[in-house]
Specification:
4 helices, two-stranded antiparallel sheet, mainly alpha, 131 residues
Length: 131
């Protein structure tokens, strides 16, 4: 199994599936946007790395886009942990996607932000290194 496949497999299983099931069981049949994001993006990461898409174009673009989104969410959350508000100049139209606690449904609290930053930077590394 390639490093990229392992990355998305663990992403899907631990951050998506297991955290989603725990949230589902503790919140009486609902799932949060954080778990949904991690479940779907981990699964798509696995699919785009599959042999039938072996040319790498899909996986490289996927890694780049997901890497940027998760790295941004991580950096914004880390900055918020230091009481730096990087979202103060966000347009009002973005308020449905970006708030003081979420960035497109991804949590901006400290621990999830650190996880987002690591996942995002790892995905960017895959996008840059894979040919």
């Amino acid at each position: 199994m390639k490093h990229r496949d392992t990355h998305y497999f663990l992403w899907f299983i631990f951050f998506g599936l297991i955290s989603g099931v725990i949230y589902y069981l503790n919140h009486h049949g609902s799932i949060d946007s954080e778990s949904t994001w991690l479940l779907v993006t981990g699964l798509l990461g696995l699919l785009f790395g599959a042999k039938w898409l072996a040319d790498g174009n899909f996986s490289r673009w996927y890694d780049l886009i997901i890497g940027i989104i998760f790295t941004l969410a991580g950096l914004i959350g880390i900055a918020a942990g230091f009481h730096l508000n990087l979202l103060s100049g966000a347009p009002a139209s973005a308020s449905s996607f970006i708030s003081a606690t979420t960035f497109f449904g991804l949590s901006l609290t400290v621990l999830p932000s650190l996880v987002h930053a690591v996942l995002g930077l790892s995905s960017l590394n895959h996008a840059i290194r894979n040919k």
